[in-house]
């Protein structure tokens, strides 16, 4: 091989290359030129081709325009010794990227003009993009909003996740039932936004055993992980542009590939078939996203996924460090911080120990100092069914060396507990990372290994300290803090609500796009007649856009003057879609008995996916659809009431839904919703919340005041107090409206030809063990909904409430959230 032929460009040549790259223009003509070039010359299509091909040509055109900034950002982060944060998350629910990237590059208008000249429609091209659905719901969408805000704040943060071949399933509704279809979002090629970086491929090990021996040369005790199977982790980088600031951050997604020359020994033994089969087993790791939100995925493949993410990402960071600083890790923790998005990546605590001790030969004490100063953990739920516990036996089989390290971490931790509470063995058992049933408790591992532990809304963080993690709080109160969630206004206002964007820009300038607290300025226009009219016009247009979508997806026509009452989120009993349905049935019963004086027409929209194995959630979807069928086809009802279930709720659907909503339903049992972020998207876009005192609703209420919020329901301590003494039958007995609702349900009115179908649902609500206490909140919910109906009749009052809700939503920007993470936890310096 002619290795000596490798040429190194001179400074002159590098300058020449830089000149050539600069020619990437942002004018209408430049964009038009490149788009046509990609469409015709690279893809071999023409202007009459499929919108998806046009989307591909457009995304390459735009990606080119990010590339120089992207390289420059990467180089700037790696030039000097710069502290960086790594956001480790099993989910990034990105959605579409084209319109967002155009917004952040500041070339929306130019691109629109370029397409107009070619007789193409930018809107149709944007519509053709498939959602990158690499997440379940709030937790994954939060990670995507965080990435956007970090790039806008120019924080050196790198996202690490998995490149699932199949993302969140596509939901179809057939005969009222949810049907799941696989989401092969990559088509048969690549995601046009990503760049494969094979040169950063890492190797992850599974199985085998660990052997302890004395190094024959140094005499030191050494550990070797032997006979493991190897899986390659190949990174695909996705650009994350900041808003008009030339920063482009990186989201690195790992894809599993069988190691080259996989199981060669098996080949040689003639086991051709087994060898090839094991290749597909390796590649299975990143095949599919687990579709469960807020519930445990207790499967071996899931643990493999978690370790794969953690090991590949940590190796990536550590080897980049070693390339520069060799094996000097003395100040590693000063320059690197890992944020764990829930317990899913909490193996990072043990894996970084393993790398530092086994590979980098650090002592236990030195390694632990580094690990415990560089890990930070975010808790996302108090629901016991979501707390991850993995059997020791599974760990032993899959990650024997990692298990040894966890045992050692636990032994040293329990010693500490014993020092603090001498003789309290029961406490040691309760706090042990290994539970009495021989499971590894991932939350405890994360807590023991982290210098910061945060909840995601004020109430939730408080409940963590009082309940779930109380004993850890007693031990380490200084580690606990709150970081209230947010959403990015770039996607959730500027991009998804162009009418509102134009109105805001005209009235208060465009500074709100990077400083959402500026929104408070619109409050001074709250009595300005023309502003108020414009506000209503924008909402009306957005309602029309939503009504069009509803009609296309469900065939049901909405009257845009009616109240648009919306609940979209994952289907879960704690979120209480059932309470919403009970109210719809109550309204239906009122119409049927002629109790319609002073009526407010209402269109109720419910949407969301149920985990495929969550039987009750799927029944709830069926109930919603059956009630809708009856309500929408009863001539007595007419325009007074409509109910639809919107299929396949996802990010791109929410971009139409949140601007078009009047009323935002946030009705979880108090103490169960950690934060919620859907609530914030609605508020920003001028919807008013009907909600319980739960999650971030508490802070929304505090911002807008009781007169601009429909509050109802038991408070968290009341829920706790009622537990054990909850008798739903009493609530039915005392409430004739609830009786009417139940007699319709129990008579089979909504399942005439499907007898017994809803028995489980009915029984669960009537059970004194119902953890969600749906019937306890029925009366107060119906009363609050009555207030809603009256308030909506006074268009002027409603409009004021709508303006105030949006005006006071500034604190719910992820720009604020990220600033707080940085000030209190990461302590990074922004890089301009
Ligand atoms: C915002 C969002 C969520 C989170 O909604 P919550 O109401 O907070 O549960 C879930 N899914 C999608 C697609 C979202 O955009």
From TrEMBL:
<dbReference type="InterPro" id="IPR011833">
    <property type="entry name" value="Glycg_phsphrylas"/>
</dbReference>
<dbReference type="InterPro" id="IPR035090">
    <property type="entry name" value="Pyridoxal_P_attach_site"/>
</dbReference>
<comment type="function">
    <text>Allosteric enzyme that catalyzes the rate-limiting step in glycogen catabolism, the phosphorolytic cleavage of glycogen to produce glucose-1-phosphate, and plays a central role in maintaining cellular and organismal glucose homeostasis.</text>
</comment>
<comment type="function">
    <text>Phosphorylase is an important allosteric enzyme in carbohydrate metabolism. Enzymes from different sources differ in their regulatory mechanisms and in their natural substrates. However, all known phosphorylases share catalytic and structural properties.</text>
</comment>
<protein>
    <recommendedName>
        <fullName>Alpha-1,4 glucan phosphorylase</fullName>
        <ecNumber>2.4.1.1</ecNumber>
    </recommendedName>
</protein>
<keyword id="KW-0663">Pyridoxal phosphate</keyword>
<dbReference type="GO" id="GO:0005980">
    <property type="term" value="P:glycogen catabolic process"/>
</dbReference>
<dbReference type="GO" id="GO:0008184">
    <property type="term" value="F:glycogen phosphorylase activity"/>
</dbReference>
<dbReference type="Pfam" id="PF00343">
    <property type="entry name" value="Phosphorylase"/>
</dbReference>
<keyword id="KW-0119">Carbohydrate metabolism</keyword>
<dbReference type="GO" id="GO:0030170">
    <property type="term" value="F:pyridoxal phosphate binding"/>
</dbReference>
<keyword id="KW-0328">Glycosyltransferase</keyword>
<dbReference type="GO" id="GO:0005737">
    <property type="term" value="C:cytoplasm"/>
</dbReference>
<keyword id="KW-0021">Allosteric enzyme</keyword>
<feature type="modified residue" description="N6-(pyridoxal phosphate)lysine">
    <location>
        <position position="681"/>
    </location>
</feature>
<keyword id="KW-0808">Transferase</keyword>
<comment type="similarity">
    <text>Belongs to the glycogen phosphorylase family.</text>
</comment>
<dbReference type="InterPro" id="IPR000811">
    <property type="entry name" value="Glyco_trans_35"/>
</dbReference>
């Amino acid at each position: 091989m002619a290795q000596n032929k490798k040429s190194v460009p001179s400074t002159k040549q590098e300058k020449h290359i830089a000149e050539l790259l600069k020619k990437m223009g942002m004018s209408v003509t430049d964009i038009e030129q490149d788009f046509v070039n990609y469409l015709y010359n690279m893809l071999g299509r023409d202007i009459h081709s499929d919108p998806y091909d046009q989307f591909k040509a457009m995304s390459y055109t735009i990606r080119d325009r990010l590339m120089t900034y992207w390289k420059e950002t990467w180089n700037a982060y790696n030039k000097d010794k710069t502290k960086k944060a790594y956001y480790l998350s099993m989910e990034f629910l990105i959605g579409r990227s084209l319109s967002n990237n155009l917004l952040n590059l500041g070339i929306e208008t130019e691109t629109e003009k370029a397409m107009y000249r070619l007789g193409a429609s930018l809107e149709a091209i944007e519509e053709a993009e498939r959602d990158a659905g690499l997440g379940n719901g709030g937790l994954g969408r939060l990670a995507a909003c965080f990435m956007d805000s970090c790039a806008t704040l120019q924080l050196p943060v790198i996202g690490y996740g998995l490149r699932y071949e199949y993302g969140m399933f596509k939901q179809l509704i057939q005969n009222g039932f949810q049907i799941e279809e696989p989401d092969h979002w990559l088509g048969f090629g690549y995601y046009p936004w990503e760049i494969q970086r094979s040169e950063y491929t890492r190797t992850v090990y599974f199985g085998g055993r660990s052997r302890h021996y004395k190094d024959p040369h140094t005499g030191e005790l050494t550990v070797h992980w032997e006979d493991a199977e190897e899986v390659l982790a190949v990174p695909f980088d996705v650009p994350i542009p900041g808003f008009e600031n030339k920063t482009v951050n990186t989201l690195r997604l790992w894809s599993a590939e069988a190691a080259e020359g996989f199981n060669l020994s098996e080949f040689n033994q003639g086991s051709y078939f087994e060898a090839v089969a094991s290749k597909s087993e390796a590649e299975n790791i990143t095949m599919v996203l687990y579709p469960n939100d807020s519930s445990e995925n207790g499967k071996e493949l899931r643990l493999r996924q978690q370790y794969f993410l953690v090991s590949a990402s940590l190796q990536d960071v550590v080897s980049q460090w070693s390339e520069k600083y060799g094996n000097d890790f003395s100040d590693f923790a000063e320059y690197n911080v890992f944020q764990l998005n829930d317990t899913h990546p909490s193996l990072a605590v043990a894996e970084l120990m393993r790398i530092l001790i086994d590979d980098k030969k650090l002592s236990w004490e030195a390694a632990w100092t580094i690990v415990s100063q560089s890990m930070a953990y975010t808790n996302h739920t108090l629901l016991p069914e979501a707390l991850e516990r993995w059997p020791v036996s599974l760990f032993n089989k899959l990650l024997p060396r990692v298990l040894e390290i966890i045992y050692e971490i636990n032994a040293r931790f329990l010693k500490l507990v014993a020092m603090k509470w001498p003789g309290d063995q029961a406490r040691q058992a309760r706090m042990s990372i290994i539970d009495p049933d021989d499971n590894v408790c991932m939350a405890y591992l994360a807590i023991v290994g982290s210098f910061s532990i945060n909840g995601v809304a004020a109430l939730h963080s408080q409940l963590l300290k009082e309940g779930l993690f109380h004993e850890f709080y007693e031990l380490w109160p200084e580690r606990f803090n709150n970081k209230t969630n947010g959403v990015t206004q770039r996607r959730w206002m500027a991009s998804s609500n162009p009418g509102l964007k134009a109105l805001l820009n005209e009235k208060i300038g465009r500074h709100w796009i990077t400083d959402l607290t500026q929104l408070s300025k619109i409050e001074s226009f709250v009595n300005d007649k023309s502003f108020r009219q414009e506000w209503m016009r924008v909402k009306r247009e957005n309602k029309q856009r939503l009504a069009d979508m509803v009609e296309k997806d469900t065939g049901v026509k909405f009257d845009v003057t009616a109240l648009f009452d919306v609940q979209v989120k994952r289907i879960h009993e704690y979120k209480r879609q059932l309470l919403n349905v009970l109210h719809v049935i109550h309204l239906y019963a009122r119409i049927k008995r002629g109790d319609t004086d002073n009526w407010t027409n209402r269109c109720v929209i419910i949407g969301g996916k149920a985990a495929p194995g969550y039987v009750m959630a799927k029944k709830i979807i069926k109930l919603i659809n059956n009630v809708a069928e009856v309500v929408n086809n009863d001539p007595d009802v007419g325009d007074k009431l409509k109910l639809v279930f919107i299929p396949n709720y996802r990010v791109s659907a929410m971009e139409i839904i949140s601007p078009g909503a009047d009323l935002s339903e946030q009705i979880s049992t108090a103490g169960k919703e950690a934060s919620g972020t859907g609530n914030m998207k609605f508020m920003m876009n001028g919807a008013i919340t009907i909600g319980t005192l739960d999650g971030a609703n508490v802070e929304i209420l505090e911002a807008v005041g009781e007169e601009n919020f429909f509050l109802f329901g038991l408070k968290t301590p009341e829920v706790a107090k009622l537990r054990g003494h909850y008798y739903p039958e009493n609530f039915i007995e005392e409430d004739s409206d609830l009786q009417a609702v139940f007699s319709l349900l129990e008579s089979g009115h909504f399942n005439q030809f499907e007898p017994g179908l809803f028995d489980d649902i009915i029984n669960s609500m009537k059970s004194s063990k119902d953890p969600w206490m749906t019937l306890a909140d029925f009366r107060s919910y119906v009363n609050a909904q009555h207030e809603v109906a009256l308030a909506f009749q006074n268009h002027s009052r409603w409009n004021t409430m709508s303006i105030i809700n949006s005006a006071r939503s500034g604190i719910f920007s992820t720009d604020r959230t990220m600033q707080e993470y940085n000030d209190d936890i990461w302590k990074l310096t922004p890089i301009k």
